[in-house]
Amino acid sequence: MTLGFDERFAIRGILRTGLSSGDVIVVFTAEPIVEKVEKALQILMDFVKRYFEGVGLNVVSVPTKDFELSVSMIGEQLKKFKNMGYDVILNLSGGMRSLIIELLAAAILTGLEGRIEVELENLEGYLSFPIEVFRIQTPLKDEYRSALEVIMKNEGINISKLSEKLKIAKSSVHKIVKKLIEMGLIEYEKIGKEYHLKSKKIAKLFVKNTI
Question: Among 66, 68, 95, which Cα is nearest to 3's?
């Protein structure tokens, strides 16, 4: 997560996630750490220590005025979690705009998988969406877009029905579906021997005539 003068966004994100022993929080701040940030950081550290036993908290300060160096430093931290198989949430709710952009850039460049969360300034909710959305090549290839449109109009459709509607072989449909799952645009539920496909909310941004 990124942290600035206000620790409330970070605490809300932690409470919502419900951390367990063995989980790790990495707090990115801009260097040098000024007094207001140091105060927010201390409150956050005390909160985690008091209510989340066994949860680690690491602080990484980065030179936000040097984009390339900052992204490189953040990327080195993110690679550790990517290789260890953690479920990752990037909370981009606090801190300098440059710091937020640098963390996002590092996540994209390292191929990190997970979710991004951003608190609303009025504390009345938050946005949540997959990191992978930034790595989807647009516009979608015709075969991916066509399959996605059919799935969106026929939630729960299986591979056989999708093959019929697209008028292409099931072997090709399997490859398309696998790619759409990797992109984070669809998900599936196995019922018996069949896989039923559903689009994710974010998928509507990638089909024809939606933007």
Answer: 95
Residue 41: phi, psi to the nearest 5? -65, -40
For the 8-131 domain, the top CATH level (class) is alpha beta
Question: In CATH terms, is domain 142-206 a member of 3.40.190.10?
Answer: no
pLDDT band at 211; cut points 50, 70, 90: very low
Closest CA to 210 of 138, 157, 159, 104: 138
- pLDDT tens digit sequence for 78-124: 998 887 878 899 999 999 999 999 999 999 999 998 999 999 988 88
- Residues in CB range of 201: below 8 A, 6 or more apart: none
Contact 148, 155 (CB under 8 A): no
- Position 193 scores a pLDDT of 85
Q: Classify 120 as helix, strand or coil.
A: coil
Mean per-residue pLDDT over the chain, rounded? 93
Contact between 102 and 108 under an 8 Å Cβ cutoff? The reply is no
Q: How far is CA 90 from CA 115, 189, 197, 198, in A?
A: 6, 26, 27, 25
Query: Using an 8 Å Cβ cutoff, are 55 and 20 in contact?
Result: yes
The structural domains of the chain, with segments of one domain joined by +, span: 8-131, 142-206
Contact 57, 48 (CB under 8 A): yes
Torsion of CA 147, 87, 9, 119, to 10 degrees: 0
